[in-house]
Every structure is written in C-alpha cells, then in structure tokens.
Design a protein that fits this description.
Elements (H helix, E strand, L loop, with lengths): L1 E8 L7 E4 L4 E5 L6 H9 L23 E9 L2 E9 L3 E5 L2 E2 L12 E4 L11 H15 L1 H22 L8 H40 L6 E6 L7 H7 L1 H7 L10 E6 L2 E2 H4 L2 H23 L4 E5 L7 H10 L5 E5 L12 E6 L2 E2 L1
Parallel strand pairs: 3-13, 3-14, 8-12, 12-13
Antiparallel strand pairs: 1-2, 1-4, 4-5, 5-6, 6-7, 9-10, 10-11, 14-15
Helix pairs in contact: 2-3, 3-4, 4-5, 4-8
Bound molecules: adenosine-5'-diphosphate and magnesium ion.
Adenosine-5'-diphosphate binds next to helix 1.
C-alpha cells in the first residue's frame, strides 16, 4: 500500500493543499497544535473507519466551512486508485469515480495502522479500548463487520432505552424479544469474527513480543467473551431483571475483553509500565502483520506523537520493524526519528504544510 497524493479542502485547520508523499518515511514536523495530527487523520479516514480521535464527523469540517473534501491517490496491489471523501452531516465516499454506499465501504481498499499515544494505554486501561482496537482492526479487513457492529449497537441501545423507560417492570416483552433476537444475531457474528481474528493476532503479537523482550518473556493473549455464542440469547433473557435497574445490557460483545498475560501473569494487573507499553507496541505491529497475511498488502504505518513517549530502545525497535513500509510519523522533535535517514520532511505551521 502506498499513498501518492492527498488533497485537503476545509478539513480542520488545514489550508487547502495537495501533498505529494514519498514511498518511505514521511516526517510531519511542527510545534503543538499546528495541524500535524489533522493531516494524518485525513489519510486515516480512507481506511473507511471513523477517525481515531472523534466519533463526530462534523468536528472535522473547518470551522468556517459547511463541508470538507478529501482526495487520496494511492497504489494498492500494484494498481493506481483514487478515492474521495466528502464530510457534511455524514461522510460519503467515492472510489475510482464510483459512489460507494457509505464511507465505511472504503474498508478493505486502503489499509493503514495507526499508533497514537492513547494506544499505549490499550493494555492498562479498561476493556473498551481493547474492544475498540479489535473493532478497528477487523473493520478494516471486513467491511461487513462495520455494518454488523452498527446494527448490533443500535439493537443494544434500543433494548437499553426500553429497559430505562419501563420503571422497574418489564412490560413490553414482545419488543424486548425482538431486540434480543437482533442482538443475538449480530452479536454472534461479532464474537465469531473477533475469536478468529484474535487467533491470528495473538500468534503474531507473541512472536513480536518475544523479540522485543529478547526472548526473556512470553506473551499470551486470549479473547474473553462475556457469553459464548450458544448462550447469548438465553443470557440476555435471564439478565432482564437486573438490567432493568441499571438500564444497561450486561451481556454481549460490547462487554467482552482481550486478556494479556506475560509469563502467565496478567499484564494489566501486574505488568510494569514498560511491559504494558511493550505489549501495546507488539499488538500494533501484530495488527499490521495480520493485515498483511490476510490481504497480502502491507498497510501504511501512521505513528502519531509516539516517539517522544518511548525510550530509545523501543523507538529503535519500532523504526527497525517498519523500515520496509511507507510511514507517516508526526513529531515535535526531529531527533526522535534520526535512526531513519531516508525520506521526506514536511513542516506544518498554523495549518500550512510546507
Ligand atoms: N474543525 C476544525 N476547524 C478548524 N480548526 C480545527 C478544527 N478542529 C481542530 N482544529 C484546530 O487544529 C489544531 C490542532 O491540530 P492538531 O493536528 O491536533 O495539532 P498537532 O500539530 O499538535 O498534532 C488546533 O489549533 C485546533 O483548534
Ligand atoms: Mg498531534
């Protein structure tokens, strides 16, 4: 996968411009709040996923504009392609001059992995970040997963609303049945996708972590569903009584987790800060490796502000692992990316890219 050119128009604080990238290292350099992350966010959106920073599309439209437009020229499988994204009330997209049914249908055409400071918390924090990690990774591989997830969340929201409005007594059981059937149908597919994906991912993460720790430590990872597929509908039914008081749905893939162990011991509970960061890095690199194994394409690597948060050993490890990919890396200090000499440097000042 290779990005050739990006055009931005009314996207966040960026001035309208067309940027030509090199096929190796693209350093995006500048002080804080100049527009570096905005630039890589624009590239990321072509994966079809939501922004890695916001779930509200409207936030990305330039303050004084009513719509934003992006264009990306890229090479995938040796073929030159062109995609367009328009952001108004919602995002729409075109690929090779054909309108897509939705912007998420871009998934599977352009692939990237993004690594940002919040990823360093993937292991340490609550399970929602780990689910998000899985959803982004799987959604990029399988566009239909994104639709299944949307329908699933909608059904969970509907069930929650019904429970909240029922004032302690389950009245509308027929409607609850309908929502729970829908949750079961889509939830089962989500669990199935995640289990299969995690099998590939954890194999790769373990071998990368082994290298990162000079084979001194072993990483294992396991998907922990709150219910297996067979029991999901029954568990939803049984939890009605308790869910009615919390106004939430206590079982289903929106409550699942991914558990990491180092030498058999929970990394989340007992891991040192350094171990947790190493797991997060191994996970990201494993995501890229898995993507390549499944699609045959090396995703472009987007690294947002992570270098300054890592010690020199880990910086070097990352930079050595990604040397054959196209990389977009933002930084405030050029010294952090010194190990890679090849490439192009862009300076961002007040939304202008030079
Ligand atoms: N929709 C928007 N329209 C205009 N400016 C925006 C919009 N969203 C964010 N910004 C501005 O973008 C700047 C931050 O850009 P960012 O890319 O996050 O900075 P950094 O260079 O630190 O990565 C802030 O000054 C913010 O006000
Ligand atoms: Mg930034």
């Amino acid at each position: 996968m290779e990005v050739k050119k990006l055009s931005v128009n009314n996207f966040r604080n960026l001035f309208p411009s067309k940027i030509e990238f090199c096929n190796s290292m693209n350093v995006i350099y500048g002080d804080n709040a100049q527009g570096k992350t905005n630039l890589i966010e624009a590239i990321w959106l072509f994966t079809g996923a939501k922004s890695f920073r916001t779930s509200k599309d409207g936030e990305m439209i330039g303050f004084s504009a009513s719509e934003a437009n992006l264009e990306l020229e890229f090479i995938s499988g040796g073929i030159e392609r062109e995609a367009k994204i328009n952001i108004k009330a919602r995002r729409t997209a075109e690929l090779d001059s054909k309108k897509l049914r939705s912007a998420s249908a871009l998934a599977g055409n352009f692939c990237a992995t993004v690594f940002s400071p919040s990823d360093l918390q993937t292991v340490k924090e609550g399970p929602s970040l780990r689910r998000r990690f899985l959803d982004l990774a799987i959604g990029q591989l399988y566009p239909s997963y994104v639709d299944i997830l949307k329908q699933y969340i909608k059904a969970v929201t509907q069930r929650n609303t019904l429970l909240k409005n029922s004032q302690g007594i389950i009245k509308n059981t027929e409607l609850l049945d309908v929502f729970e059937k829908e949750i079961t149908l889509n939830g089962s597919k989500i669990i199935d996708y995640r289990i299969k994906y995690c099998k590939n991912l954890t194999e790769n993460a373990s071998s990368i972590y082994g290298e990162l720790s000079s084979l001194r430590e072993e990483l294992t990872a396991e998907y922990m569903p709150s219910s297996n597929i067979e029991d999901l509908e029954e568990k939803l039914y049984v939890s009605r009584k308790t869910d009615i008081f919390s106004g939430t749905t206590s079982v289903g893939p929106h409550r699942d987790d991914l558990d990491f162990k180092i030498n058999g011991i929970s990394a989340r509970t007992f891991g040192s800060q350094g171990q947790q960061r190493s797991v997060a890095i191994a996970l990201k690199l494993a995501e890229a490796k898995t993507l390549k194994e499944i699609t045959g394409e090396q995703p472009v690597a987007i690294l947002d502000d992570v270098m300054s948060e890592l010690d020199p050993d880990r910086q070097a490890f990352i930079l050595n692992h990604i040397k054959d990919w196209q990389v977009f890396i933002t930084c405030c200090d050029k010294a952090n990316v010194k190990p890679l000499k090849e490439g192009k440097i862009f300076t961002v000042v007040g939304g202008r890219i030079k």
